[in-house]
Amino acid sequence: MSEQTTLDKVPAPRPASGEKLLEVTGLQKYFPINGGFIFQRRVGDVRAVDGVDFHINAGESLGMVGESGCGKSTTGRLVTRLLEPTGGKVSYAGKDITHSSRKELAPIRSEIQMIFQDPYASLNPRQTVGSIIAGPMEINGINPTGGRERRVRELLEIVGLNPEHYNRFPHEFSGGQRQRIGVARALALDPKLIVADEPVSALDVSIQAQVVNLLQKVQQELGIAFLFIAHDLAIVRHFSQRIAVMYLGKIVEIGDRESIYGGPRHPYTHALLSSSPEADPDDDGRERIRLAGDVPSPINPPSGCRFRTRCWKAQDKCATEEPPLVRLGGNAEGHLTACHFPEEPTIEAREEDIVLDPALAAIEEAADETP
Amino acid sequence: MTILTKPEAEPVPQGSEHFLSVRDLYVQFATEDGTVKAVDGLSFDLDRGKTLGIVGESGSGKSVTNMAILGLHNPRNTTIAGEIVLDGQELTGASPKTLEKLRGKKMSMVFQDSLTALSPYYTVGRQIAEPYMKHMGASKKEARDRAVEMLRRVGIPQPQTRVDDYPHQFSGGMRQRAMIAMALVCDPDLVIADEPTTALDVTVQAQILDLLKDLQQESGTSIILITHDLGVIAHTADDVVVMYAGRAVERGTVRDILKTPEHPYAWGLLGSIPRLSSSVDVPLAPIPGSPPSLLNPPPGCPFHTRCAFVDQVEGDRCRTERPVLPEGRGSACHLTADQKRDIFIEQIQPRLR
Ligand SMILES: Nc1ncnc2c1ncn2[C@@H]1O[C@H](COP(=O)(O)OP(=O)(O)OP(=O)(O)O)[C@@H](O)[C@H]1O
Ligand SMILES: Nc1ncnc2c1ncn2[C@@H]1O[C@H](COP(=O)(O)OP(=O)(O)OP(=O)(O)O)[C@@H](O)[C@H]1O
Ligand code: SF4
Ligand code: SF4
Ligand SMILES: [Mg+2]
Ligand SMILES: [Mg+2]
After folding, report:
1. pTM (2 decimals)?
2. Where would I find the ABC transporter domain in this sequence (chain A) (predicted)?
């Protein structure tokens, strides 16, 4: 497969990079929980996203990481307006689209695209690759010069697939090739922003590398901005200029790559980085922080700081006052942290493991006693 | 002198020094398109209390192999040949009834997807208790106590109350722990964990791997860990088998495989992963090309269509002769030992920084 495909068909000029393409303020999404027999009534809410602020510049990639269930996918679907926000504001290219109707969204729809996690489930098995990629053009009534078929063949080439595969079906492709088809489909409408929700988690490392390279190429050469959601911290680091760390519906730390990976301040970011295993059997140098088992619920989030039930630095203030997301002394511009008692900006090893899980601590003590 | 063991009745089976021994395993599926050779002559061993990591490309036969050990393939379209010996007992020819008895007690599996493996209709506690009643003949009360005990052991807080929760009331990490509790409830001697942490973020992943390790230390369980995450392998496995196109292409200790790999496919795998410390300006280096068809595997070395070192092997052996994997530490590749070492040190290792 050619990794060196050139992009000599660079389309229309882009907004200058550095300009805010997407801006999100106070974004909220509550899912109602209904209860009651016969008469369903609202008994509570899942506060999936609860007051999130961030922006993405044109041509930039913002990585998003955080625990399962912390609201990453929901954020992605709010931004693409597949979901209606409960509160807050989403503006795209200076235009408020928070509650835009389908019709108002139509011209923007083509500019914001989504790539999904599962390359097997997200492609219709009965459609040829050609009609899958041409689909969005048809729906949006777009007729590129030279015709749709020519554009599809062009796109296949851009993503490193053979244009002759036009009439093949998805099952004839490997996982990595299928994910490329998904990328070609997302590129069909010449987007300015792509929300990629775990685009490589289901793929093995070699195929992962193929797809990440491809996405990076379209980002750099076509100037497309990304919201890149993933579990793998090394991949996020590789792909994103800035990174947002989410915890239980909120962003707890956000900043440029060097700040987040080199000088993180929020205890949760420290925990995340210390848990990421590197493929080196000798790599025991880094600190290890193991979090307690009881993940708090987004239905009843803890008062004050939401991380306090698992935080080793928590004090009384953490229960009463919610820490604002602000720039701390010594931090680079744009590096914001929501914590009353931040950690030192270091990733150096700790003296001792921090074990926050009582059951785990008990098991380990027992293991230590019986050598 | 009384003879306590029956010398003839229980002949020592081949390879019995290992707790689990897989020899020349073949698993083939009859499909409309032809015969899929999913596992094509695979051998490996696992000792008591040890962890074997299995890595390899998507579709290389990792899951199929382990389903064969557990006897979970549909016999109607599956042909299994070769030898699987678990603690002296041959499994490939065993009756479904025998296998059923062994599953849960002697060997058990943690499936990749906890949501589909746990039933939404029964409480977590009941699903953990059921195999315990079945295999250990425990009463309902005993089994419930055992379920609480297991939930506690896998680190679920307030197990006495959580035991009555339904799976959807658990978070992803808690469900995965519940599955592990279910797999461990009868103290199985062999646990097979198929991508147990892929869907989880790194903090939950670390918790689960720590738990598996701690439990292994407590009860001497043998573990097969299938994953595409080499970071996970580095921190949990003792030995590693690298699979490619239904075969083992390299075998060694975790240190051998990650520090001095010998097979060009293993080099490619290690070269593909981004590291937290690697330069962000250099593109990742995937293995070029795509995996071979399992319907018509290519002759010779199955990796030759993607291998950069074919020319360094004399003659046309890469395309004509299938390299064999020696017993113990080694790799199935025609390159000489010196070539493997030199290429790795000169060309591969510098790229892994
Ligand atoms: N349609 C829905 N109805 C009710 N609750 C929902 C719905 N969608 C998501 N949630 C809840 O919202 C929270 C956030 O979910 P979301 O899918 O955004 O998490 P995530 O960060 O993407 O997690 P993961 O890493 O596991 O994909 C979870 O508690 C989830 O259970
Ligand atoms: N029941 C079946 N019928 C036909 N082919 C099958 C069947 N089950 C698996 N296969 C094929 O056997 C091969 C090996 O599959 P297996 O699930 O073992 O791969 P794997 O190594 O576990 O991959 P992954 O990392 O993606 O889980 C694949 O090509 C698969 O398509
Ligand atoms: S605000 Fe308090 S509880 Fe929250 S992360 Fe900081 S120290 Fe921990
Ligand atoms: S046998 Fe030949 S083709 Fe196969 S891995 Fe070795 S050098 Fe490459
Ligand atoms: Mg998600
Ligand atoms: Mg599998």
Report:
1. 0.80
2. 22-273
